Every structure is written in C-alpha cells, then in structure tokens.
Amino acid sequence: MSDTLQLAAPAKAENPLTLVYRDPWLLVVHKPAGLLVHRSPIDPHETEFALQYARALNVGEHVYAVHRLDRPTSGLLVFARDPVTASTLGKAMMSGEVSKTYLAMVRGWTPEHGVIDHPLKDEPEDKRRKGEPQAVRDARTRFRRLATTEIPVEIEGHPTSRYSLVELIPETGRKHQLRRHMKHIHHPIIGDANHGRGRHNRYFAERFGQGRLMLAAVGIAFPHPATGERLQLNAEPEASFMQVLSVFEDAGFPPSPSVASTS
User: Fold this and answer.
1) Catalytic residue among 23, 70, 82, 122
2) Please, which contacts does 189-196 make with residues 24 or more away whose CB atoms are closer than 8 Å?
3) How many whole angstroms separate alpha carbon 189 and alpha carbon 195?
4) 122 labelled catalytic
5) Which tens digit of pLDDT belongs to each residue from 105-150?
6) What is the pTM of this model?
7) Which domains does the chain possess?
C-alpha cells in the first residue's frame, strides 16, 4: 500500500465533510471548524455531528471514531469501518504509534523550534464526579516556526502586532493540549476563546468577517491496521483558515502551508 496522500472526490455539497481517503478498513475525512465529532455534554442541544456525516459517506454503514478533534479545530479525522480496525487503531494511539501534525497561527514571534514539556492538570469538565481530585498528566509538544509576520496595527498598546505560523506535533494526547501549551509559552493561538487573547481574536474576527480557532490538523501517520505499512495522509486547511493566513503573504510564505513535515 502506498504511503503517499490519496485523494478522493469531495463529499456532496450538503455534507460538510470532505472525503480524503477510503479503503475497506478506513475512512478519513476533513472536518470543518465548528462541527462536533459526536454527541457531547458541551452542547446537548446540537443535532449535527461528524459521526453521522461520516456514516453517510460510508453508504449508511456504521463507522467508529478512533480519535477526536475539538469542535473549533478543523482537519483530518480518522474513522474505522469495523470494530476490529477501531480496536487496532485505538491500541496504536495508546502506544504512541500515531503521529499527528497541526498548523497554528499564534500571537508573537516564537523561537524557531522547541519542545514544550509541561504537565497539564485535568480540566474541571474532565472530572467524572464532583469533588474528585484533578490529575496532573505529563504532556509534550514539539513545535517548529514556519513563518512570521508583523502588521501595522496597534492591538495591545504597541504600534505593530506580531504573529507566527507554527507546526505543532503533540507527543501526548491531553485535552486541549496544544491550546494550553501555546498559552503556557506566551504564544496563544489566535481565535482561542478560552486560552487566547481577546483583543487579537476580535481583530481577526472583524477583519475577516468570521472568528475561528486558527488550529488545523493537516497530517496524520500510522501503521495501517490491516497491512502494517505506514500510511501517511495530509490535507490543506479549509478556506477560512487560509483566508486568515493571508497576513503572511508579505512575509513571502508560500500559499500552501501543507509543506509542513508530518514525519
């Protein structure tokens, strides 16, 4: 089996998912920002989920979500087409055999590269019972700066405002890890309502007519559950993400940020 990107035709217009890869065992899609993966107490009144749309792409047959993307995060989402494949992929994720790559636009100019090794405490909603102590779990994220820009706009008292485009590779899978880690190093992700900077979020929402989290899952690689060969898939961010990235054009950044490595 080839380990290169395999593209299929986009889903029907009424289906917000774009089909990226499909074989007898796997269904991989691109999820837009704003769509929940499955039913969640985050929004008990929501009626649309990636899981149901993925099932439609699977000719109505059941699919199994093997990982998740936060609602405001866009990008690659993998479903298994049978329970055995789901179990195999779940074990691969637990053992660290799955590599994920994200792109994020953050406030300020980050270092060229680095590792964020910062344990994270379970967030309050993670607790199963009230009063249960919040566990502190190891968390590591590698990052690499891809581009910087400085725009002539005063947002927080400075005559100009600086931003970086970074590649993020989580080595652990804690809840909201990337968003919390970037806040920890004082480079919060643009559009992050919980961990970001409100003035910057509002500026970009007003400038582009839409506010979104500038975090996109652009690459995933793992041993194929049936063949064992390493499968690597990539997808460019959706149009709303690319629109905001236009602020990097003057910095000479290429129009397609999918050049980021997923190795």
Assistant:
1) 70
2) 189/104, 189/105, 189/106, 189/213, 189/214, 189/215, 190/105, 190/106, 190/107, 190/163, 190/214, 190/244, 191/72, 191/215, 193/72, 196/107
3) 8
4) no
5) 999 999 999 999 999 988 766 544 456 677 889 999 999 999 999 9
6) 0.86
7) 18-259 (3.30.2350.10)
